[in-house]
Amino acid sequence: MKRFHVHVGVADLDQSIAFYSGLFGVGPSVVKADYAKWMLEDPRVNFAISQKCGAVKGVEHLGIQVESEGELADVYGRLQSAGGPVLEEGVTTCCYARSEKSWIADPDGVVWEAFLTNGESVNYGNGPDFAALSSSTAAADACCVPAVAAPVVASVTKSNGCC
């Protein structure tokens, strides 16, 4: 079985370990002076963070997609325990899909969405007003995320939509 891998550069490792442990509901399986890793089974992901001098901090945005209302309620609870403002978008259309979503930004502004997809849409849709996540430093050109700061990921491009 494949496992999704994500690596995020962070400014404060301890603060980020606390945030992600709250979000995932479990502590990291590996912790070093400049690195931590979670080998999660639900969702199945290898998620790593590191704190390196001069390294780019953050990524565009990440997400946890669930398959049921019960899983969505569980993930929403984890968003609350992670310790940051949660933007509850609710039922929405984004990226040609009908979904129910909530958003949160970690201590370094990496934006996360938690969502349950309920079907397809013929419209691309619009993102919500991310003012509640004003600490975000997500890429301004990124799809479905707040445009509140300069891009972190230089390679992100946008034609007539992304995702």
Question: Helix and strand layout, with pairings?
Answer:
Layout (H helix, E strand, L loop, with lengths): L3 E6 L3 H12 L5 E3 L2 E7 L2 E7 L10 E6 L2 H13 L4 E9 L2 E9 L5 E10 L43
Parallel strand pairs: 1-4, 5-8
Antiparallel strand pairs: 2-3, 3-4, 6-7, 7-8
Q: Count the helices. How many?
A: 2
- Strands of the largest sheet, in order across it? 1-4-3-2
Helical proportion, percent range: 10-25%
Give me the count of strands: 8
CATH class: Alpha Beta
Largest sheet report: 4 strands, mixed
- N- to C-terminal distance: 24 Å
Uncertain regions spanning at least 5 consecutive residues: 136-163
- Mean pLDDT figure: 76
Write the H/E string, N to C.
EHEEEEHEEE
CATH architecture: Roll
**Strand coverage percent:** 25-35%
Given the C-alpha coordinates, what overall shape results? Answer: globular
Structural class: alpha/beta
Determine the CATH topology. 2,3-Dihydroxybiphenyl 1,2-Dioxygenase, domain 1
Rg, please? 15 Å
Number of domains: 1
Tell me the name of the CATH homologous superfamily: 2,3-Dihydroxybiphenyl 1,2-Dioxygenase, domain 1
Keywords: Dioxygenase, Oxidoreductase
GO molecular function: dioxygenase activity
Domain VOC: 2-117
Protein name: Glyoxalase/bleomycin resistance/dioxygenase family protein
